[in-house]
Write a structure and sequence with these properties.
This protein is an alpha/beta fold and 431 residues long. It has 16 helices and 17 strands. Helix 1 packs across helix 13, helix 8 crosses helix 9 and helix 15 runs antiparallel to helix 16. It is elongated. 44% of the residues are buried.
């Protein structure tokens, strides 16, 4: 049986999971393959890792990643330390020394993917990154291989389990945001500093990777529109539910002839949309392709073993030679993809949920609808509850399809009316 010698850098949650799979005595890999990845060495800055893992004596352990990378017996390097530095330098050196690379580093790939892909091609090596998006969901393989015959028209979905858990808690149990976040932190679903998740940063990193692979294009990451869930109001979840919608944090990529839309924000989905029933820490990603039509991949988007499973799948691809063939053949990895502009926020065209806090007197609806109509926004439905909130009455509207620039213009003018008593809230709708 042939083997592929693996050097594993970073023994956090996922790294430990990868080691468990590779060290398993009755591994399913042995039953299925004639060429298997074998753990040859580990690098971690914490020397206690060696004792904690109870490593067999034949496995090299070092606190210096460069020592591992320089080992001539190691053929592929797995980078699982995360962040930009020193991860970028580690991957670059590994490629220069003739090693293939497997990584789960979504931030690094989102910000420097094109550069690193070019470096890999320059040295005739590959970078594999199934674990960077969707945990155990094989979304990268699906976009890269399974849907290769399709022009991908749209990619959108729930790609962050922390925010999905929080929004599920708010929706199902009528729990306020701060309380739902605290519960997520207590259960280990949210970090002590949850900013990367709740402000949509993590989702935007994943969206950038999906869009590059799906569309085969390059773009400026900084121009991806991003909005998190920290300002989501429980009352809006309730009113939207009355109207037949469920709130989710979505990562959305759409391609037109002239540009691409890349955006991360809370969005309303009809109750019968498949994504509406994706709850808790689960992820799901919908793909719209010219041949396959609409499809959805669903599963655990994070966690030690699902993510480790994706890492090992990449290692198998390297061992079988598939990774090198794919990386060399696909234009998406050339480092020279067409660079296209990301659509400006004002160009977004969708339906909107809008909640005004207004005084309770005749003529309010007419004033607001008049301004909306002047800005080319038509109203689809209205909810007006009589119950007062802090001396004002909530007025909820659903619009027909409209440009965001027109909505923003209308809201700016409506804000000046003396009938408006509080900040106006709006949410985009995806159907």
């Amino acid at each position: 049986m042939k083997t592929l010698n693996v050097g594993l850098i970073g023994m956090g949650t996922v790294g430990t999971g990868v080691a468990k799979i590779l060290l398993e005595k009755d591994s399913p890999l042995l039953e299925k393959l004639d060429c298997v990845p074998v753990l040859k060495g580990i690098a971690d800055s914490n020397p206690d890792v060696k004792t904690r893992l109870d490593l067999p004596p034949h496995i090299l352990f070092t606190t210096d990643a460069k020592t591992l990378i320089s080992n001539p017996d190691i053929q592929v390097v797995v980078e699982l330390i995360g962040g930009l530095h020193p991860a970028k330098e580690i991957i670059t050196i590994a490629l220069e020394k003739g090693k293939d690379v497997v990584t789960a580093n979504k931030m690094l790939l989102a910000l420097h993917g094109s550069e690193l892909f070019g470096k890999a091609r320059e040295h005739g090596k590959s970078i594999s990154f199934e674990a960077s998006v969707g945990g155990g969901i094989p979304i990268i393989a699906a976009l890269r291989d399974g849907f290769i015959a399709n022009k991908i028209e749209a990619i959108f979905g729930i790609v962050n389990g922390t925010t999905n858990y929080i929004l599920t808690k708010m929706t199902k149990e009528n729990v306020k945001y701060q309380d739902a976040l605290a519960e997520a932190q207590r259960l280990g679903y949210a970090e002590k500093d949850p900013t990367m998740d709740v402000e949509g940063i993590d989702s935007s990193h994943k969206l950038a990777i999906l869009a590059r692979i799906g569309f085969g294009l390059d773009f400026d990451f900084k121009n991806i529109y991003r909005e998190g869930i920290s300002d989501v109001d429980l009352s809006d979840i309730g009113y939207a539910h009355e109207l037949g919608y469920t709130l989710k944090l979505l990562a959305i990529a759409k391609k037109t002839e002239n540009h691409i839309e890349l955006r991360v924000h809370p969005a309303l989905l009809p109750h019968d949309h498949p994504l509406s029933s994706v709850n808790g820490v689960f992820n799901a990603i919908c793909i719209s392709g010219s041949a396959v039509g609409e499809t959805m991949l669903y599963g655990r988007g994070a966690g030690q073993m699902p993510t480790a499973s994706a890492v090992v799948a990449d290692l198998v691809d390297v061992a079988l030679g598939r990774a090198g063939i794919t990386f060399k053949a696909m234009k998406a990895f050339s480092g020279h993809c067409e660079h296209v502009p990301i659509a400006d926020l004002q160009q977004f065209k969708t339906r909107y949920y809008v909640r005004f806090s207004v005084v309770d007197k005749p003529g309010v609806l007419a004033k607001i609808s008049g301004i909306l109509g002047k800005c080319e926004i038509s109203i689809a439905s209205v909810i007006q509850h009589k119950a007062k909130e802090n001396g004002s009455v909530p007025l909820v509207m659903m619009t027909h399809l409209a440009e965001e620039g027109n909505l923003q213009k209308a809201l700016t003018e409506i804000k000046q009316l003396d009938i408006i008593k509080d900040h106006t809230k709006f949410l985009r709708v995806e159907e």
